Amino acid sequence: xxxxxxxxxxxxxxxxxxxxxxxxxxxxxxxxxxxxxxxxxxxxxxxxxxxxxxxxxxxxxxxxxxxxxxxxxxxxxxxxxxxxxxxxxxxxxxxxxxxxxxxxxxxxxxxxxxxxxxxxxxxxxxxxxxxxxxxxxxxxxxxxxxxxxxxxxxxxxxxxxxxxxxxxxxxxxxxxxxxxx
Length: 181
Prior knowledge:
The chain is of the alpha+beta class. It folds into two domains: 2-104; 107-180, ATP synthase, E subunit, C-terminal (hypothetical protein PF0899 fold), CATH 3.30.2320.30. It is built from eight helices and four strands; from the N terminus they run H-H-H-H-H-H-E-H-E-E-E-H. The protein has helices at residues 2-17, 21-40, 42-49, 55-69, 73-84, 91-105, 121-135, 166-180; strands at 108-115, 138-145, 152-157, 160-165. The chain has a four-stranded mixed sheet with strand order 2-1-3-4, sandwiched between helices. Helix 7 links the parallel strand 1 (108-115) and strand 2 (138-145). The protein starts with a helix and ends with a helix.
């Protein structure tokens, strides 16, 4: 738990330095790229995440990677901070937290939409417009096909589900009919 709160502090700190969405996208993608480099090279990963290498060696390695990749200034500085403070082991968790914190900072709500079939662009835009009106926030959808649905959609916000599927509507109808008896 302590590790997660520590990672969240670093993620929040990084988010505070980011000026706009374009910069956010660049920094996040570059951090993901750096993590992939680490995951593809177990020796490098072990060296940067542990005390196996000295800080000087770690700094040289991050500098060498930067020479090849040419990271955005904020990405590079953030990686150097993680390396300096021996927190590189939290990079994976930090990256996972970035989107949530970015959306939170910018008043964006991310909802998961489960549908029986792929939503058309027109239907997706209409759904977003209606959801933005209902939630009074900008909405970003994470779409997923759910083969168990016959028709309709389910919307997930955190642990809350809104069921607009045929099965859900029939269940509501059944419940209301049973209440009347």
